[in-house]
Structures are given as structure tokens and as C-alpha cells.
Request: fold
Amino acid sequence: MSINQEIKPITAKRDGNLYIGGCDLTEIAKKYGTPLYVIDEQSLREICKEYKKTFEDYKNIHMTYASKALCSSAITKILFDEGFGFDVVSEGETYTVYKAGVDMSKVTFNGNNKSKSEIELALKCGVGRFSVDNFYEAKVLNDIAGKMGKEANILLRITPGIECHTHEYIKTGQIDSKFGFDLSQIDEIIDLIKSKYKNLSIKGLHSHIGSQIFELKSYCDEIDILVKELVSLNNRHCLSMNELNIGGGLGVKYTDNDNPPSVQEFGETIKNSVKSVCEKYNINPPIIYIEPGRSIISTAGVTLYTIGSTKQVPNGRKYITIDGGMADNPRPSMYNAIYSAEIANNTDNRNNEVVTIAGRYCESGDILIENIELPAPQSGDTLCVYCTGAYNYSMSSNYNRVQKPAMALVNNSQSDIIVNRESLEDLIRLDVIPDRLRR
Ligand SMILES: *Cc1c(COP(=O)(O)O)cnc(C)c1O
Reply:
């Protein structure tokens, strides 16, 4: 079993109350307030070790964590400590990893519309690779690198034309995608770079086929296409590209219905696939980059809420309202994501009932979990929602002008705040009242 195949962090235990990382979640909820994101350090470090172990016999592997899944200074430090590089997509993520002391040569800058200031910052901090997404960006990157007297090492992001079975909004590899060059456009961009863009150095190809992927076959198809392109482009253009970034996407288990492959199965598939395709084309195995995000951080994270009001609709369902919702976890309202949850305080001697967990935000669509069986939830209970490490905090907003939650790191019965809860002052900090309104 691999950690991404579990719903709960590996240290989750019941002893009356629910514990993670040796910490009583009900106590932590009291101590730091709710909603509260909690990250289990052990689960996080263990899955990093799983990735490392799986790929230890592939000499040229670069493991980069997709920061967009959850980016904070402490999380960055842990991942860097575990040997990971980073995939960043903004000035904010670049700055965060830079300030956390990361070796910036292990960072790849992705994105389909990088701004000038983002590119300047990335070049200034010495980001290792730029994944160039389109014609416009190649030109802009070359101009800026030229002005700064630098050379940008690039991968060309391509759209491999692979359909994988995941939600429409998190698919990225199909032909009609906003990301990357169509296969038919690569010759043109390479010609342009070779003839005009002297500040760009092409190292290889990049693609990312989607997220929450359960079918490993999609990766075989992707590797097949990437290696084939690498070989034919090298031949046609006299290049010596030897890097392939195959993106992220390995799925996680949100509910009992999800059955993602293990990290080991993922790793074996990638390695075998690369090996056999390289033998077919008679080339040395390239440098491989992987960019897992969700599978690294999702299972390590839970969110704690306090149950407030409840409402029994006559002859209808029972709503249980929590003190958070779509602003701290937009995934259910955005793409019908389904989560598992448990009441963290002691619920012995309660009967189960089916309830709907509603958020506190002013939208009917702010429903966190529909029809979940829980031991008769009561006002004041602490609700623990599982597998919220990825794309929760990172997608959170201040909708309804509510402060973003704090984040705590737990390990060996110790808990530490790694992101402070926003204050009311934080909320108005950037507001400006022009003088003419002050009269
Ligand atoms: C989002 C993204 C990832 C990470 O995807 P996960 O599904 O979280 O593993 C990796 N690479 C790129 C280019 C991405 O856009």
C-alpha cells in the first residue's frame, strides 16, 4: 500500500477522540481555532520516500513537487529536505521557494502566460528550467533573457493528444487544450529558436496529461509520444535534447470508490515504459522529470471544522453547517469533488445518521459533502475532512470577507502553526480610501 491509496494520514488513530501525528484533533481545534488545515509530517515525508525509493534505480530522475497543490514556506522546506525540486507557476511560488532556501537550479517554471515580472524574477533567482508554452512566450523570454545577459534553459511544452479519464477541468493533454504546442507546431518553434532566439537553449520536452489519473496506461501513451518526438526532432533539427518532463497527475483516494495506483506501480510503469521505448528507438534513457503535486500532499492533509447550526428539512434531509466551506475548499462546488469525513471528538454511544454537510458561505452551492453517514453530528462537534492537503489552501479565497484558516503541522505529538490565521487587519490591509472620499 502506498500513502496515496489511503483516505487518512498514516498516523490517524482513534482512542475515544481522533488523533493525527499523535495530536488530539479536538484539542488542536480548541487551541488554534477552526477551520484549521492540519498536515501530518510523517505522511508527507513517507510518500516522498516512496517516490525516492521507487525511482532510485533510475539514474537520471528529477523529482519536482508541483507547488500549486500546496505552497508554503514550511512545506517547501520539508520537500526540499526530502530531496525534491519544485515546479512553480508564478512569482509568488518562485519567491516562496527562493526564500525557503531551495537550490533554484532544481526549479522548473511552468505556465501558459508567464508575465514579464515573473520571468525576470525567475531568471534573477536562477530557475533551472523554463517550460515554454507558446510562441509569444518564447519571444518574450528570449527578449528578457537577452536584456539581462542570461541564457534560459527551456523545455518545450507539448500537447500530446492523449485523452485520460478524469474531470474535464483537470484534463490537460488532449488536443484541444490551452496548454502547450500542438505537435504540428514544434518544428516551427524550434526553427524560430534556432534562427532567432539566441538566449534560449532547448534541453527537452515537457507535457502534463491531467490530474487525479488512475489509468497508468495514459503515461505509457505519453512517454511513447514524447520519446518519439524527442528522437525525430533531434534528427530533423540536429539537436541533442535529452530531457523529458512527464508532468504529474497520479491520483489519490478521496473516498472508498477511488482506487488510484500506488507510487510503486506508477514508478515501475514509467521506468519500464521509458526503457522499452528507448530500446525501440535505440537511444540512451533521457533525464526524466516528474512533477507530482496532489499525490504528495493530499493525503497528509485534513481540515478541521466546528459544527454549528443544524437544520432538519421537514420530510427532507438534515443539514449540518460548519464554520468553513467553499472559501477554504472550493473543489466540491467547482467540480463536484467528493470527500470523506469523520467526527473527531468521542462519539461512542451515538447512532449513525445520513446528513449533508453545508458550508457557511452565502451560496446554495456551498455544500461540502452530500449524504454522508456520521454518528449523529451535534453542534460543537469537531469535523475532520480527509485528503484536503492538495488544492484546498492553494485555491482558498476570502469570499464573504472571511479570514483564511491557519495551518498546523503535526508530528510526534507536537503541533506547530506553519501558516497563521488571517486577522481582520489582514483583510483590510490592502484597502485604500482615496482622500476625496474622506471629506
Ligand atoms: C498541476 C500540474 C502538475 C501537478 O499535477 P498533480 O495532479 O497535482 O500531480 C504537474 N505539472 C504541471 C505542468 C501541472 O500543471
Summary: Residues 66, 68-69, 87, 110, 208, 211, 247-249, 291-295 surround pyridoxal-5'-phosphate (CB under 6 Å). Residues 217-237 form the longest helix (21 residues). The longest strand covers residues 301-312. DSSP finds 13 helices and 21 strands in the chain.
